[in-house]
Design a protein that fits this description.
This protein is of the alpha/beta class and 123 residues long. 18% of the residues lie in helices and 36% in strands. The chain has helices at residues 13-24, 82-91; strands spanning 5-9, 27-33, 37-43, 50-56, 72-75, 95-98, 107-111, 117-121. The strands form two sheets. Strands 1-4-3-2 form a four-stranded mixed β-sheet, with helices on one face. It has a four-stranded mixed β-sheet with strand order 5-8-7-6, with helices on one face. The radius of gyration is 14 Å and the shape is globular.
């Protein structure tokens, strides 16, 4: 068995797609349009695990985040510093949340446009 995807609900799929593709070099793997919702699958080239963005048609407000969900973690690309990856994520629309200088290890956190936390790990 292997991880297939993690699903995040979104009220603004275009912002979320732009963020994950610009900040983390993900690509749109596929899109599935249904009567009442649309699924967008994003991932890195060569990897099978994906992020599924679910847009329920007409739900354009931010969803409340449950207490059980923590964060998504993404490694920096080879040769990219943690500070550079963090800056790129903020410039792509992420919230300046917990920069590298505030974290006691080789990691940092941004929030995506919907407020989900993304941990950036130094490779």
């Amino acid at each position: 068995m292997e991880l297939a995807h993690t699903m995040l609900r979104t009220g603004s799929p275009d912002k979320m797609i732009d963020f994950y593709t610009e900040a983390f070099n993900m690509e749109m793997k596929r899109k599935k349009e249904m009567d009442t919702f649309t699924l967008y699958f994003l991932g890195h080239p060569g990897q099978t695990a994906e992020i599924e963005l679910t847009y329920n048609h007409g739900e354009d407000n931010r969803y409340e985040k449950g207490e059980g969900f923590g964060h998504i973690a993404i490694h920096t690309p080879e040769g990219t510093s943690l500070s550079e990856a963090y800056r790129r994520a903020v410039e792509a629309g992420g919230e300046d949340y917990r920069p590298p200088k505030e974290c006691p290890g080789n990691y940092a956190f941004v929030k995506d446009p919907e407020g989900y936390e993304v941990e950036i790990l130094q490779s």
